[in-house]
Amino acid sequence: MIKKGSEGVGTTWETQIRVIKGIIVFNLVVIAIGAILLENLKPFVLGNICGSITAIINFRLLAISMENLVAKGNSSKGGVFRHTSSRALVRLLISGIVIYFSLTSKHINTAGTVIGLLSIKPIILIQSSLYK
Predict the structure, then answer these.
(1) Does 44 have pLDDT greater than 60?
(2) Closest listed residue to residue 58, CA positions, set 24, 91, 86
């Protein structure tokens, strides 16, 4: 059993927590702006929460995949590409299902979902400039 923090596994945990906190703060600001601009806030908030949770899950899955890739090293060259591409397809499928659900549901705003899904990108850019 590989323990957290050994040989590259689990070493991104602090970064993940910082990014997740940043996503939460960012989306609270987006929801506050939405409360000012929108009449019906509930679908927007539900979409934003749904998209944000999906973004966090995808980010966590990416971190796990990269940690496993670093832990394996060059031991299995053919399996590395297959493993990372299959994980990327799983993350893409998860995002696609969430967007489809948002498009077909009357209770979830698609714009809120997309904003929630994309909220991780500015947070990562801000975090990378602050914590070098």
Answers:
(1) yes
(2) 91
- Give the torsion sign (CA, 48, 49, 52, 57): negative
Domain ranges in the chain are 13-130
- The DSSP annotation for 35-103 comes to HHH-S-HHHHHHHHHHHHHHHHHHHHHHHHHHHHHHHHTTS-HHHHHHHHHHHHHHHHHHHHHHHHHHH
pTM: 0.85
Are 52 and 116 a contacting pair, CB within 8 Å?
Answer: yes
* pLDDT reported for residue 81: 75
Q: How far is residue 2's CA from residue 7's CA, in Å, rounded to a whole number?
A: 8
Q: How far apart are CA 116 and CA 27, in angstroms?
A: 7
Q: What percent of the chain has pLDDT over 70?
A: 86
Instruction: Report angle CA 42, 43, 46 to the nearest 5 degrees.
Output: 85
